[in-house]
Amino acid sequence: MTFSELIRSEKPVLVDFSAEWCGPCRMLAPVLEDVKRRVGERATIFKLDVDRNPLIASTYNVMAVPTLIIFQDGKPVWRRSGVLSAVELTNTLESFMEPAAV
């Protein structure tokens, strides 16, 4: 699956633009694991190494790592650089999700 296919999802797709050498990126890894547990299948979360994917990083003007971008239907709908808390990130992701069926 290509990057453009992956972000063309109806459910939100959180992309962590990061690099192996980046200290804050390593700090964000357990936060993203926590967020993944909280949102389950309602969103997709994945890490993209900017050094291995410079064209994609350039396409989305990623100048600093970590940069988090939420995509929906192939379009960026939210972005932030730096480390966020699991609660803040979960709340942000949930604002782009369909309400859970009751």
For the sheet with most strands, the description reads: 4 strands, mixed
The shape is globular
Series of H and E elements: HEHEHEEH
Q: Strand portion, in percent? A: 15-25%
DSSP helical segment count: 4
User: How many individual β-strands?
Assistant: 4
Short descriptors:
102 residues, alpha+beta, Glutaredoxin, four-stranded mixed beta sheet, 4 helices, 4 strands, globular
Descriptive report:
There is one protein chain. The protein is α+β, with helices and mostly antiparallel strands and 102 residues long. The protein has a single domain (3-94), classed as Glutaredoxin (3-Layer(aba) Sandwich). Helices cover 36% and strands 25% of the residues. Strand 3 and strand 4 form a beta hairpin. Helix 2 (23-39) crosses helix 4 (86-94). It starts with a helix and ends in an 8-residue tail after the last helix. 25% of the residues are buried. The model has no long low-confidence stretch (mean pLDDT 94).
Q: How do the helices and strands line up, and which of them pair or pack?
A:
Elements: H1 3-7, E1 13-18, H2 23-39, E2 44-49, H3 54-59, E3 67-72, E4 75-81, H4 86-94
Parallel strand pairs: 1-2
Antiparallel strand pairs: 1-3, 3-4
Helix pairs in contact: 2-4
